[in-house]
Amino acid sequence: MIPLIFYLGLAALLFSIGLYGVMTHKNGIRMIMCIELMLNSANLNLVAFSSYTDTLNGQVFAVFSIALAAAEAAVGFAILMAIYRMHDKINLNELKSLRW
Amino acid sequence: MVKTALEEFAFLIPLLPALAFVITFFFGRKMPSGGAIVPILAIAASFVISLMITLRLLANPDEVISQSYPWFAVLNIGVLIDPLAAVMLSMVSFVSLLIHIYAVSYMSGDPGEARYFAETALFTAAMLSLVLSDNILQLFVSWELVGLCSYLLIGFWFERPSAAAAAKKAFLTTRIGDVMFLTGIIVLTSDILKLAGGFQDGTYLLRFDEIFSYIPQLSALQTNIFGFEVSHLTIITLLFFGGAVGKSGQFPLHVWLPDAMEGPTTVSALIHAATMVTAGVYLVARTFPMFIAAPDSLMVVAYLGGFTALFAGTMGIVMNDLKRVLAYSTISQLGYMMLGLGLGSAIGLEAIGISLFHLINHAFFKALLFLCAGSVIHAVGTQDMRELGGVRKVMPVTAATMAIAALALAGFGIPGTSIGTSGFFSKDAIIEAAYLFGENSNNWIPYAFSIAAALLTSIYIFRLIFMTFTGKPRSDYHGHESPAIMTIPLSILAIFSLVFGGLTKTGFMNFLEETFANGFVNLNIGGLAALGRNELVGTAGSESLFVQWLPMIVAVAGLAVAFVIYYLRIIKLGPLASMKNPVYRLLYKRYYQHKIYTEFFSLGIVYGVIALLSQVLDVIIDSIVEGIGILTVGVSEELRRVQTGVVQTYAIVVIAGVSLLIILVKLIMEVL
Questions:
Q1: In a domain? residue A16
Q2: Whole-angstrom Cα distance, residue B64 to residue B80?
Q3: Structural domain total, chain A
Q4: How confident is the model at residue B577 (pLDDT cuts 50, 70, 90)?
Q5: What's the whole-number mean pLDDT along residues B637-661?
Q6: Residues of chain A with C-beta less than 8 angstroms from the C-beta of B646
Q7: Per the domain annotation, does A9 fall within a domain?
Q8: Chain-chain contact of A100 with B643 (C-beta, under 8 angstroms)
Q9: What pLDDT score does B669 carry?
Q10: What is the C-alpha to C-alpha distance for residues B12 and B15, in angstroms, rounded to an integer?
Q11: pTM over 0.80
C-alpha cells in the first residue's frame, strides 16, 4: 500500500501548480482551469484520508466537491462569456471597472 | 394600641377620591353633569371617615392612627392621623365637598365638565394623601401630584393663551420650591444614613418619628458656610421652608397665585382654601419639631411670613379685579399662618395651634369669598369691580354671605369675649403671639407687620364689598340670584365663618398641641427648643386691654376708610389713585415683580446665559462631530486605493493572509 505521505505530497504539488497558475496567468479561462487544479488537489487529500482512516466520509466530501466544482465552472465560464461579449476581451488585468 | 374598625378605613380617605378620578375620567362624559356625583359621593365618604377619626381623637388624643407598609427596603408607605392631620383631613374634605357641589351648577354646560370633575377629584385625593402621609417621601410624592393638579386646573381653559401661561407660571414657580424641598429631603436622608451608620433593619428611614428621633444629632452636625457655623438642621429646615414658600405663595415666589385666577373660580376656591396653598403651611407644621430646634429657620419663617402678609396687602388695595383682590388676600393670610408658625420660638407648640386654627378658619371664609365671587361672575358676567356696583339688589344671598366672609377675613369680634367671627379669634391669636414675641425679645418687627397687614386687610376687603355690592350699577349688566345648589354651600360656609372660631377656639388649640405629645412620637418640645437655645415664654391671650383691642380698632379703622371712600364717596381719590401717582403705579404694577422675573431673570439672565452657553457648546460639539466626519472621509479616501479591482491582487492578499494565519497559529501552538 502506498503510504499516505505520497498522496499528500502529490496533492501539495498540484495545489502549488494551481496557485502559481492563478497568480501568473492573465487569461480568465486559464485561471479557472488552475482553480480546478487546486480543487482537485483538495479532493485528492480527502480521498487519501478517507482510505487512510478506512471510512467513507472523505469520499462523500470529494463527490460533493466535484459536483460543486462542476457547477462553479459552468457559472464561471458563463460569466467569462458574458464579459467577453461586452468588452471583447478576456484579460482579467484589464478589467478594472470594480476599482475605487 | 387596639386596632378598631375605624383604623381599617383610614387609607380609604385619599383612595376614594382617587377612584372617583378614574371613574369620572373614563366614564364622566357619558354621565349627567360630567359624572359629578361620583367625586361628590367619594369625598363625602372621605369626609365622614375623617370626621369620625377626628371626633375619636378629640375624645382621646392618644389614639393616633399609624399604619406603615414596606415599600422599598427601608422606605414605607403609610397613614398617620394625629390631631394635626385629622383637622386638616376634615377641613380639606369638607370644603372640597362643598366646592364640588357648588361646581355642579357653576360648571354646567362647560364642554370640559367631566375633565373638570376628574381633575378636582384627583386634586382632593392628592391633598388628602399629602396630609396623612407618615413619611416625608410619600408626602413629597403627593406634594408633586398636588402641583400637577394645580397646573391642570389653572390651565383648565387651555385654549386661552392667558390660562395656558398662568398654568405654566404656577408650575414653574412652585417648581423652584419643590426643588428646594427635594434637596432638603436628600440632605436629610444622607445625614440620617451617616448618623445611623447605614440602613437599619426594622426601621423606616424617612418616617416622621424616625426623622424626629435624629433631631439632636442633626442639630449637632455643623457646616461652615461663609464663615458661619450652620447646623444641618437649619439647612434642612430652610430647604423645607423653601418648598413651603413656593407652594404657599410666600414672597418672593407668590407671583403664581394671582395668575392662578385663570382657572374656573371654583378651582381658585379649591386652591386658595383647601388644597394647594395650605400644603406649605402643613409641611412646616408637620416638621415643626425640626424647626423649633433650629431657631434661625423659625426666625426666617416669622419674618418672611410677616413681610408677605403686609406686602400682599399693599397690592390687594389697588387691584380692580374681584378675584385678584382675593388672591392677594390669600397670600397675605398665608403670611399670617407662616408668621404664627415662626413665632414658635416664643410660644412653642402653641404656634401650630394658632397657625392651623387660622388655616382652618381661613379655609371657610376664603372658600366662601371665592364662591361668592364666582356667583357674581356667573350671574353678571364681569369681574371688574369698576363695572360692578349695586349687585346687592339682584343677589341678596350672595351679598349677605360675602359680607359675612369679609367680616371674618377682617377679623371682627369683641375682644375678651366669645363673640366674634372665626377670623377674629385666629388672627388675633397670631397678632397677640407676635406681641408676646416682641415683648420677650424686644423685636417688634413681626408685630408691626401683622398690625399693618390687619389694617390693609380690612381696607381692601371692604373696598371690594362696597365697590361690588353697594351704590348704583356702573355698567349695563343683567344679574339674578344663583340657584339653590350654589347658595346652599354659600350659606353653610357662611355659618362656619361666623361661628366656628368662637365655638372651638380653646379646644382647637389644645387639641392641636397634642400633635407632638402623644404615643406616636412623644417629643419634649421644651427640650428641643433648648437645643436651639431659645426659651419658650408662655401663653398668648393674657395681654393688656390695649393689646387685645388694637387689632379690632385697626379693623374698624379699615372699614371706616373703605366706607368713607367707596360707599359715601365723600373723599375722591382722584389723582391719588391714578397711574400718575408713582406709589399707586408701583402697587398696581405689583412692584414690577412680573417684569423683573420674566424680563430680567428669565429673559436677561437665564436666557442670556443659556444663549451664551449654547453658542459655546455649538462650537465644541460641532467641531467634535464634524472632526469625526472629516477624519473618516480622509482615512477612507486613502484606504479605498486598496481596492484595485484586479482579481489577482485580491487572491494574493487572501493567500498571504491565510499563510500568515497558519504561521501564527503554528507559533502559538509552539509557545503553548
A1: no
A2: 7
A3: 1
A4: low
A5: 86
A6: 92-93, 96, 99
A7: no
A8: yes
A9: 92
A10: 5
A11: no
